[in-house]
Amino acid sequence: MNVSTKSEYGLRALIYLAGHSAREAVPAREIAEKWRVPIKYLEQILKTLRDGGFITAQVGVGGGYRLSRPATLITAGEVIRLLDGRIAPMGCVSSSHYEPCEFEPDCGLKTLWARARAALVGVLDQTTIADLCTSADRPQVISLKSSSKR
Fold first, then answer.
1. Does residue 94 sit in helix, strand or coil?
2. Structure confidence by residue, pLDDT tens digits, 22-58
């Protein structure tokens, strides 16, 4: 899976909005400046997030964006699916954007891709925007233990 800048910036925007949820609305320009994102690109992403029901927009003086539901109820997986489409590393194991492969009937790689997809979906669908806000405050240490070969 290759996460696009669209998903990265969309997630960053949602994290920022969650961190400023006490405000009436957050202007797109403020989010763009914080994350150094071109404003026009961010506005396209925000429109998609609005159409997807993740945020609401307020126009006029004091306008901007805010989350349409609590950050604890928005998962990274559903945001990435909205902005990028499939999460699966290969189309042959995608549940929403299945693409057949000529080698599929006898391909041993399908098992690998299915396991990778399951791991990704498990993490992304269990990680909320609220979790990511907490992670931003406290960097996590990830232990990478070398696995022994069998």
1. coil
2. 888 999 999 999 999 999 999 999 999 999 999 999 9
